[in-house]
Amino acid sequence: MIVLIGGEKGGTGKTTLATNLAQMRAARGHDVLLVDTDKQESASSWASLRAEEGIDPTITAVQKLGKNITRDLLDLAKRYDDLVIDAGGRDSFELRAALVATEQIFIPVQASQFDVWTLGNMAELVEQAQVLNPRLRAFVVLNRASPNPSVSEAKEAESLLDDFPALTFCGVTLRDRIAFRKASSAGQGVEELHPKDPKAIDEITQLYEIVFNEK
Ligand SMILES: Nc1ncnc2c1ncn2[C@@H]1O[C@H](COP(=O)(O)OP(=O)(O)OP(=O)(O)O)[C@@H](O)[C@H]1O
Ligand SMILES: [Mg+2]
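Above: query sequence and magnesium ion SMILES. Below: predicted holo structure tokens.
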């Protein structure tokens, strides 16, 4: 399966979600490749750090930039069970090209910063890609929501997304938790971090199950 984590807005959690999903997939015995289409190389650096620290399982990461990326992704998809693609911010060539190769994009949206303009742009990009790639489905995942469980940003997201038929809320909300930051900076997935943060693990597991249809 090819899973794209993308979006035009910077700092919404794309790399955090991509690295966690790749780690979880690998830990469950799948041959996964983490594809970094971001010039900042954050996902690749996370994988290198992981290798340096000797954390098992090793996650193979490659950086892919430039014109041939759609063909490269389709080629790589034949050699791995799964590709998890971290498509950096901005309306990049790589994001557009990856949208043509993938079946699903998950777009992290920072709960406190609903940005209708960016969502509208993403919806347009998705619709354009669907002309060439009708299987493409686009989901929004809420990230960095208030850790206070009484605050439900999900309702707001759902009503906002009514205006964009190309985008569906996937139903998962990840809250702002230090564990996500700590795990990323240690080259880990949040389920590998000690001490464990059961709430963070529960949230990322919900996302994992939706992405890989494992409910
Ligand atoms: N749920 C979360 N809780 C706490 N911190 C988070 C969460 N998600 C992401 N972060 C932190 O927010 C910052 C931005 O996240 P990340 O690098 O994943 O975003 P990005 O979309 O990949 O950014 P860019 O557009 O620069 O590639 C990082 O410091 C990350 O650790
Ligand atoms: Mg990133």
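The pocket of adenosine-5'-triphosphate (ligand 1) is lined by residues 10-16, 38, 40, 42, 88-89, 143-144, 174, 176-177, 180-181, 184 (CB under 6 Å).
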